[in-house]
Input
Amino acid sequence: MGQAWGFHEYGGPEVQELFDRPDPVPGRDEVLIRVEVAGVNPLDHLLRSGPVDGLDGGRPFPRVLGMEAAGTVLARGEDVTGFEVGDAVFGFALTGGGTYAETTVLSAPNTARIPAGLSAAVAATLPVAGTTAVDVLDQLGLPAGATVLVNGVGGGVGLAVARLATGRGLRVIGTGSTAKREHAEDIGVRFVDYTAEDVAIAARELVPGGFDGIVDLVGGASLRTVAPLARDPRDVIAVGDASVSGLGGRFVERRVDRENLERSARLALDGVLAPVITAVHPLSEAPAALAAVENGHASGKVVIEVA
Output
């Protein structure tokens, strides 16, 4: 029996609750872990607000919040290979087990060992932000010296993209609010404050010939503002807004398998993909951690320390 933060019906923060639940039993392709650290992501409150195809696991209410975690293997489901009890692992709770909990189940094909020297806190940020950064930059395939605009650079994914891009020798311009400036500039981003200047005008002044690539993490009207700044519309990659295809751009092609997790971990271990963790909350403060991400005030990555 352990504690977990979840929700008893779809809705806003008012439906969240702390409850006790028996340790989940790992299914055929799952591993049961004792959670040490859980990552907090915008997808968490989207899943609480309403059904998202393929991501709720079909589990009954109450459901547990959270999609990514790092911890220690307690048990393996049938036919699971590559893990032993006691292994330190990180990965996705893609089968609906949630991660804001003392124990949970991760999808074994979407889980990897934590390499020696990498902390659980860093590992817990990699399933979403780390692998997304790898995916969008691989999809763009820009050479060193190229220019990339990261629209919405201040969050966990944005800073991961920017860090990896600078590590690849790209020139990075990022957009965000004033509160996001410091962390972006610390990793070498030329920052454009959308609260103080016209993004399109400022970006064109910095890169008159147009950007070699654009990574959009905002969507909506903001995506429509920055998309024309690309030299080629096919080099606009959106992470959250599929309407990018109507602008000639592409939606990110996600790879959430063990291989990509392991690759992200190696990059993090080498310091190329070091996440910017700006807040660490205990499990008792999980609602505050999620609120910071939900209201857009969080800069960098927010995590919940469970163990």
Notes: The chain has a mean pLDDT of 95. The chain is about 25% helix and 25% strand.
